[in-house]
Amino acid sequence: MIVPFSHVFMLAGALFFLGLVCIFARRNLIMTLIGIEIMMNAAAIAFVASAAHWHRLEGQAFVLFIIGVAATEVAVGLALVVAAHRRTGSVDPDRYDVLKW
Amino acid sequence: MTQTAHNDFIFLATAVSVWLPFAAFAVITIFTRKRPRLSAGLSIGSVTVSMVIAFSLLLRLWSVGHPIEYTSRWFQTGSFSLFFGFLLDPTSLLMFALVGMISFLVQIYSLGYMHGDPGFSRYYASQSLFAWSMLSLTVSASLLQLYIFWELVGLCSYLLIGFWYEKFSATQAGKKAFVMTRAGDTAFLLGALLLLLHLGNVSIMQMDAPAAANRLSPVLMTTCVLLIFGGIVGKSAQFPLLTWLPDAMEGPTPVSALLHSATMVAAGVFLFARLFPFFSHSSAAMTVCLAVGTLSMLMASTMAMVDRDIKKVWAYSTISQLGYMVMGLSAGSSFAGFFHLTTHATFKALLFLCSGVWIHYFETNDMYEIARKNGRSLKIPLVCTILAAASLSGLPPLSGYFSKESILSALLLEPNPLWFLAGLLGVFMTAYYAFRPVFIILFPREFDGKEREGNRGFVYWIMAWPLILLACLTVGLGFLKAPLGSFLHAAVPPERVWVLPASIGLGLFGVFLTWYEFGRRSASQIGFVERSPGVKTFFLKRWFLDDLYAYLLKKVIYRGFAELLTRNDRQVIDGGIEKLCDLTVESSGIFSRVQSGVLRFNLMVMFVVLTLVGLYFFVF
Q1: φ, ψ dihedrals at B270, nearest 5°
Q2: How far apart (Å, rounded) are the C-alpha atoms in residues B342 and B320?
Q3: A96 inside 8 A of chain B by CB
């Protein structure tokens, strides 16, 4: 590998953490979806690095799955966001507190 | 079981006599409620058997010189064992026979009096229950056992006073009787417990033995005696617990005759006679008893002099005569008090039953009304009332004369002449209040004029025969004074020469005064006491004792004690729990703020926790 395996893993971790921060720190449902995308991509990078490190191709195959799932999920997620926006008139996740006691 | 040479037969006889009425009560209550005549038959049958056994025991054991005791252990806890049994000594045998006889006569009388009453079965059930409790009380072997039956007769009194329970005053009277006697019984229990602590678990025989005196210090002895006397005060309606007895006249007249003249209220005096050797160890306590008895006697006599209700007059008379008995006993002569108990039982029951005939026919308790409705046409009650009133006043040769004279002789033995003079004053007042109803009924003023005839049927005669029997006893019992004295092994007080003329003279003076005020054709029928309205009100209102008690109840108990407890209940207990609930709600409100409903924070927390878990497992 061109770069040490641990570096790629750390990159994946940092990306994951950034995705998480994106969910927490933004008050927009679309940004939540983007954060989820980032987290999935981070996982994909980790998979690719593992495949390169241990010379097994299953890692790369799994990344294809991840991309496919990500696409589906975004489609469904956006549909949900549109429906939610229609119901409450905003995309702020803080507005959806019906389960609060 | 401790027993003498007399075998199980006596024990069996006593047990049957005592428990048969209870069996009758059980059968009536469970099975024959709907069959009044069967209930009456059962009850009367059982009490007849009890009476016959009682009399045969009395005759059989007449010359046995020592008491017979049967005891057996009921239960045991640790080193303390509770024993129950029968104690048959002269006092208890005599009382046993007396209770049996009067119960029998009253139950026969009730066939007529309570005829047609819807609660007939319930009445006879209660009568049987009372017969059982009272008979057991008389032969109880230990103070604790006696206390149990003491309370039971109190219960029967409550049931029978409030018999016509639809009438509010009757239930009030029953409650008042029960609560007032309960107050006395608390003192009794305290005394019994003190004795239990210091003397151990002794029977009455052991208590009466001379050895008991040495084991208690004088102060303790006086305290115990006074506490037990407190129970007697409650049960025998002495001052200050005397106002329940006049109210108890709300019950049917046979009940008044049985319970509240002859047997239940006599249980207190009977206890005194029972424990007489024990009580006489403490002369201070005896003086207190003497004072209480004298005070009750005088107070009740004054109350009887002004009342219009004939049953109330006899009720006050009962309190007064019980005071006499207590005076006789406290003066040191157990024979005087006990003999007066037996004679009083006969003539007081007779007085009540005669009044009952009038009340049954004329449906009024007021003596002026009875007179107006031609009460004197019912001859048997009239004659019996005159006889009994004469006996009550202590006129010879009736039984009351002999017993009252022995009490006065006993009082003379006291160093202070005050007691004897009080006794003489009582004789005068007794004669006065006894003959006042007699003359009022004999010589009515406005006259309804109708001669009552045609009602001389079954009801009248079934009520009349007990009257005749009791009248014979009233006349004859006095002559048994010497035999009874030797039977009871008690010293008959020596008869002083000038007691006779004094008491007879005062009695006759009382009779003459009532004749002068009520009997003469031109008399105004207003007594000398009734002339001054202040005195009359004072006596009518029972010396304002009832008002005093109501005031004390209101101020001390309701406003003071009960108020305090209510406030404690509401503010401390209820308030405390409410505050606790509020606290829970508040804190849950605080904690629920964790659930902000904001999705991001939930996710954040989840992520933090998972990170920590991962750190814990994979790094450490």
Answers
A1: -60, -40
A2: 15
A3: yes
Give one word for B363, left, alpha or beta, with left for phi > 0 and alpha for psi -120 to 50.
left
| C-alpha count within 13 angstroms, C-beta hemisphere, residue B227 | 16
Quote the DSSP letter at residue B476: H
Q: Is the pLDDT of residue A100 over 90?
A: no
Would you state the structure tokens that stand for residue B231, as one six-digit string?
A: 């129970």
What proportion of chain A, given as a percentage, has pLDDT over 70? 99
On whether the CB atoms of residues B199 and B191 are closer than 8 A, the answer is no
Q: Which residue in the set A20, A100, A101 is minimally distant from B607, CB to CB?
A: A20
Would you list the domain boundaries of chain A?
Answer: 28-90
Flag if B597 and A99 touch (Cβ within 8 Å): yes
DSSP readout, B376-387? Answer: GG-HHHHHHHHH
pLDDT of residue B5: 45
Q: Tens digits of per-residue pLDDT, B158-190?
A: 999 999 999 999 999 999 999 999 999 999 999
Query: Of B358, B510, B364, B367, which Cα lies nearest the Cα of B441?
Result: B367
The secondary structure of residue B140, as a DSSP letter, is: B
Residue with tokens 């037969």: B9
Residues 586-615 (B) with a CB less than 8 A from some CB of A: 592, 595-600, 603-604, 607
Does the structural domain A28-90 have CATH classification 2.60.120.330? no
Nearest to B596 among A24, A98, A100 (CB): A100
Q: Please answer yes or no on whether B598 and A94 come within 8 Å at the CB atom.
A: yes
Contact A24 B603 (CB under 8 A): yes
Rg (CA), chain A: 17
- pLDDT of B85 over the 90 cut: no
Task: Please answer yes or no on whether B604 and A24 come within 8 Å at the CB atom.
Answer: yes
The residue type found at B52 is V
Predicted pLDDT of residue B456:
67
Beta bridge partners, B140, equal B86
Measured CA to CA, the distance from residue B201 to residue B142 in angstroms comes to: 9
A20/B597 Cβ within 8 A: no
pLDDT in tens, B459-477: 888 888 899 989 988 888 8
Of A23, A27, A100, the CB nearest to B597: A100
Give me the residues of A, 5-24, that contact B with CB < 8 A.
Answer: 20, 23-24
Q: Closest chain B residue to A23 measured between Cα atoms?
A: B600
Q: Which residues in chain B have their CB less than 8 angstroms from residue A96's CB?
A: 597, 599
Whether residue B599 and residue A93 make contact (CB cut-off 8 A), yes or no, is yes
B544 — alpha (psi -120 to 50), left (phi > 0) or beta?
Answer: left
Rounded CA-CA distance B315/B175 in Å is 18
How many other C-beta atoms lie within 10 A of the C-beta of residue A96? 16
Q: For residue A16, what is the nearest residue in chain B, using CA coordinates?
A: B607
In this structure, what DSSP letter does residue B69 have?
A: E
pTM (predicted TM-score):
0.79
Length of chain B counted residue by residue: 620
**Cβ atoms of residues B248 and B219 within 8 Å:** no
Chain B residue nearest residue A92, CA to CA:
B598
